[in-house]
Predict the structure.
Amino acid sequence: EPEVTQTPSHQVTQMGQEVILRCVPISNHLYFYWYRQILGQKVEFLVSFYNNEISEKSEIFDDQFSVERPDGSNFTLKIRSTKLEDSAMYFCASSEARLAGVETQYFGPGTRLLVL
Amino acid sequence: QQQVKQSPQSLIVQKGGISIINCAYENTAFDYFPWYQQFPGKGPALLIAIRPDVSEKKEGRFTISFNKSAKQFSLHIMDSQPGDSATYFCAASYIPGTASKLTFGTGTRLQVTL
């Protein structure tokens, strides 16, 4: 069964450093998302991406964040200058074209980011 | 208005019992309500979902009940099993154009005891 994959599974970085989180969505999917989950809290939307541009972003997704689909298969989230509060599990998700008003988002296993 | 409220925060059910998790929303534009199951260290996985044109959807031991007028929906797990022990998130989305973000509830940690 196709699945969303993410690398790395864990990332430890120093405050102020740049990190890039990588995702490989399911191959025929068209919509891509990043969510994050701070330990013990709910999953929060960061950004959605369709047709090579951002569709929507949350207030969390400030100028320090960017997304890219560099080669038609990978989908990346970059944090330019990490802060302590960026420590969280980051999930990539993807979905295919909407069918009958239903859009199932499939989540990857996540990257646990720890900022020291 | 974008919030989805979920209760209870945690739930302990005996094996064979019924687990019930409730969610409420405010935004009447929401038109898709999935439930996700998450095991420790894993990403959320879709369990079951409903659209507001039906009041109930059943898949195996899992049932969603939907009350559009009250803006509430709930997950019922019949014959709960220890393998159901996980965190359950309700979510809601609407489709404004090209992509639809999921707004998640705060999660319910379910423990099914022997």
In short: The CA atoms of residues 87 and 114 of chain A lie 5 Å apart. Chain A touches chain B through 29 residues (CB under 8 Å).
